[in-house]
């Protein structure tokens, strides 16, 4: 009987689940189907449970199979991270793969690049991507480090270090009557159409903004959504609505036709935290503790 904790077998089982069948799984693994089918049968016999239901649409994990696959993916991700860490210890480590949100461009990303360069490591591969996608890529071992916005689900074997919190500024079209004021209060924004990030991108922060600007269960008047700050500023300049822009972004990004004003009575719950996430040892090597 095969050892159910053999990482090669775990990778095969996880691939079958991801691809939805033996034929597609075998193709993804670059192996023939009979050995893969035998692996599934022998693992089921070894564990004493059925791992998949065979349906007309393919193979669907049973509850027991889902548990095994969940654990297998965590084990495989940890092994991939371990292999990546070992490779980095060589004389010519491969470039780190770093994800970042736009709010990290002002200070946090340059600081990280300085730390990497100071160790004589190659320039990293950089990709701007939202927090949730970074967290998934980190869990799968597709990214080594992520500069992102907590809170976010963190996979086993990863750690996160807060890099600080930032406030928000109010972004107004230059022709808006509020643009003549030195500061903006929450009451000034009540009922005004807003340009915000998608709720799924930051549900906790979105809820805090809703509580401040549309209390009592009222609907927040969102005129448009955009994931990136630059896109939000473009929509504000076009007169679509009023935006809320992180202060760190405002220090590096300007947009014609938009003025930025302090939010005088911004609740403390409406802040933008940035953190760096990655393997504990790698964070320690880069002096993030």
From TrEMBL:
Domain HTH lysR-type: 5-62
Listed InterPro entries: LysR_HTH_N, LysR_subst-bd, WH-like_DNA-bd_sf, WH_DNA-bd_sf
GO molecular function: DNA binding; DNA-binding transcription factor activity
Entry protein name: HcaR_2 protein
Record keywords: DNA-binding, Transcription, Transcription regulation
Domain of life: Bacteria
Family indicated by similarity: Belongs to the LysR transcriptional regulatory family.
Gene that this sequence comes from: hcaR_2
CDD domains: PBP2_LTTR_aromatics_like (cd08414)
GO cellular component: protein-DNA complex
């Amino acid at each position: 009987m095969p050892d159910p904790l053999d990482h090669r077998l775990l990778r095969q089982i996880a691939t079958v689940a991801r691809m939805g069948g033996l034929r597609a799984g075998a193709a993804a693994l670059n192996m023939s189907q009979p050995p893969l089918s035998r692996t599934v049968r022998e693992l089921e016999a070894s564990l004493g449970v059925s791992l998949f239901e065979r349906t007309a649409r393919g193979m669907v994990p049973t509850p027991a199979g889902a548990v095994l696959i969940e654990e297998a993916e965590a084990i495989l991700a940890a092994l991939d991270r371990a292999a990546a860490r070992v490779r980095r210890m060589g004389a010519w480590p491969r470039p780190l793969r770093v994800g970042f949100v736009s709010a990290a461009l002002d200070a946090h990303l340059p600081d990280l690049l300085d730390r990497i360069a100071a160790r004589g490591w190659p320039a990293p591969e950089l990709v701007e991507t939202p927090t949730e996608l970074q967290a998934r890529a980190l869990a799968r071992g597709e990214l080594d480090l992520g500069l992102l916005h907590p809170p976010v689900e963190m996979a086993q074997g990863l750690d996160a270090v807060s890099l600080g919190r930032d406030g928000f500024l109010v972004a107004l079209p230059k022709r808006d009557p509020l643009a003549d004021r030195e500061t903006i209060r929450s009451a000034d924004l009540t009922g005004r159409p807003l340009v915000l990030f998608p709720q799924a991108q930051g549900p906790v922060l979105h809820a805090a903004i809703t509580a401040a600007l549309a209390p009592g269960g009222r609907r927040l008047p969102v005129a448009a959504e955009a994931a990136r700050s630059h896109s939000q500023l473009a929509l504000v300049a076009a007169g679509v609505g009023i935006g809320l822009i992180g202060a760190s972004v405002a220090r590096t990004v300007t947009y014609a036709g938009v003025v930025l004003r302090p939010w005088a009575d911004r609740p403390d719950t409406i802040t933008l935290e940035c953190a760096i996430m990655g393997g504990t040892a790698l964070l320690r090597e880069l002096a993030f503790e």
